[in-house]
Task: inverse folding
């Protein structure tokens, strides 16, 4: 095969400068299936260099006032925002998401992550109590933990990377981040802005590479006391094992198998378009996406017809097409994995109402090797089906009827995950009852993906450990110290 032309070659960012690597791995343009980028294949040596740089930078960075750190973070946010279109184009090409999604969701949220934590760091308070009978005064201090190891996924690359970096450095930590090897470009682009923003060398270090090599070296390093990870439950189990000898602080945001519960009194005019979006936004590659839709039996047929009609109008196109509702999946392997779930469902007797194997996908000839898939709706699946139990992480959703409130709560809770759920009803009492009984870290009622960054984010059961958000992130990225003074 001929050597691809005009390849983008990334470098690690360690100690405030770009450092070449001895070996590289290919990164593919998911819309064409062609190699377009080379990413460092880092390992223990690169992580060791990053730890050294982060250690050197920590004393000075942690001693800066919150206001000083806030100014630098706001400057970095400004610089990214000034290049919003450039970042959006890069994110769209690298990940396969639509340019519209990158332009309106990923990059604006990345900017806001820095601004939010640059502000919130100025408003935290600590506790103070008096013990007059003992002649003592007690107060608490919050101090940064040290070096934060941050591992982010490929579905929302810069969005989730900055969601980790921002609170970590706001709290006075230095960081070593490892983005996904499949979507590293926007992280590398952000590194170019660090010096101009005033981020001191060594405060933010980015080491590129694969999980079993670079990620493992970071997780198992004795001088990295804290790990924040977003990704699969299987990888998280490995992280827990590798970090256990060092008693590290862990925040693990993992998979989901999120239900939407549609009661007979739901406003379908709002429910249908929102549930199509919650099922297929970003190609279904969001941990919060809906993958199981339970519809009360008396409106099941009406819902199904309207939902399938709306799903068929959800346009699959090139990521650069501004009219596309959905782009391409991240990789050839991931596309095959999602298609295999459709095959398994058919073998189990399910019906495919639209999408894969039913409708025809029209794409340009030069993109025939791209990882495209139509929004796919399945019915006739049993609760113990792999399509109902396992995280698919693609544009595949199952629609199932139910009769009673008690029945649907049991079904919704009948998976190992517990990240998010959506409830559709006009009955406020029912919403409160159901929300309380769902085993889920987040519950949206009559809406989806409305987020206040002050509020806790995280899952139950196999969907994770810990919470992140304004107060929760601050507590995770700091240690509390109680001081008692006798006077």
Result:
């Amino acid at each position: 095969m001929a050597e691809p032309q005009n390849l983008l070659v990334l470098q690690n960012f360690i100690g405030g400068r770009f450092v070449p690597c001895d070996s590289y791995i290919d990164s593919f343009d998911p819309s064409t299936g062609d190699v377009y980028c080379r990413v460092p294949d880092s390992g223990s040596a690169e992580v060791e260099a990053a730890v050294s740089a982060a250690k050197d930078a920590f004393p000075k960075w942690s001693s800066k006032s919150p206001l000083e750190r806030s100014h630098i973070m706001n400057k970095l946010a400004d610089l990214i925002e000034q290049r919003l279109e450039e970042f959006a184009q890069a994110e769209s090409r690298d990940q396969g998401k639509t340019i519209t999604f990158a332009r309106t969701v990923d990059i604006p949220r990345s900017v806001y992550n820095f601004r939010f934590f640059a502000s919130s760091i100025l408003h935290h308070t600590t506790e103070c109590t008096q013990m007059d009978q003992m002649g003592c005064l007690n107060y608490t201090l919050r101090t940064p933990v040290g070096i934060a190891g941050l591992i982010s996924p490929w579905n929302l690359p810069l969005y989730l990377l900055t969601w980790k970096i921002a609170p970590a450095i706001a709290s006075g930590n230095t960081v070593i981040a490892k983005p996904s090897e499949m979507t590293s470009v926007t992280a590398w682009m952000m590194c170019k802005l660090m010096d101009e923003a005033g981020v001191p060398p060594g405060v933010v270090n980015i080491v590129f590479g694969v999980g079993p090599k670079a990620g493992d070296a970071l997780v198992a390093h004795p001088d990295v006391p804290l790990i924040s990870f977003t990704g699969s439950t299987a990888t998280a189990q490995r992280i827990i094992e590798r970090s256990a000898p060092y008693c590290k602080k862990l925040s693990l945001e993992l998979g989901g198998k999120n239900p939407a519960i549609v009661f007979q009194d739901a406003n379908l005019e709002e429910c249908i378009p929102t549930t199509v979006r919650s099922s297929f936004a970003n190609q279904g590659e969001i941990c919060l996406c809906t993958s199981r839709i339970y519809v009360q039996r008396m409106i099941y047929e009406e819902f199904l017809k309207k939902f399938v009609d709306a799903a068929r109008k959800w346009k699959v196109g090139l990521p650069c097409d501004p009219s596309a509702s959905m782009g391409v999946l991240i990789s050839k392997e991931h596309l095959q994995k999602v298609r295999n779930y459709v095959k398994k469902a058919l073998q189990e007797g399910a019906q495919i109402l639209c999408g894969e194997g039913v409708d025809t996908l029209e794409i340009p000839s030069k993109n025939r090797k791209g990882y495209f898939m139509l929004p796919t709706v399945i019915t006739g699946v049993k609760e113990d089906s792999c399509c109902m139990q396992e995280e698919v992480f693609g544009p595949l959703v199952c629609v199932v009827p139910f009769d009673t409130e008690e029945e649907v709560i049991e079904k919704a809770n009948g998976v190992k995950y517990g990240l998010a759920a959506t409830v559709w009803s006009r009955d406020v009492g029912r919403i409160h009852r159901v929300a309380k009984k769902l085993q889920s870290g987040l519950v949206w009622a009559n809406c989806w993906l409305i987020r206040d960054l002050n509020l806790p984010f995280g899952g139950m059961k196999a969907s994770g450990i810990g919470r992140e958000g304004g107060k929760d992130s601050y507590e995770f990225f700091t240690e509390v110290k109680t001081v008692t003074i006798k006077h």
About this structure: The radius of gyration is 23 Å. Residues 99-120 form the longest helix (22 residues). The chain has a mean pLDDT of 97.
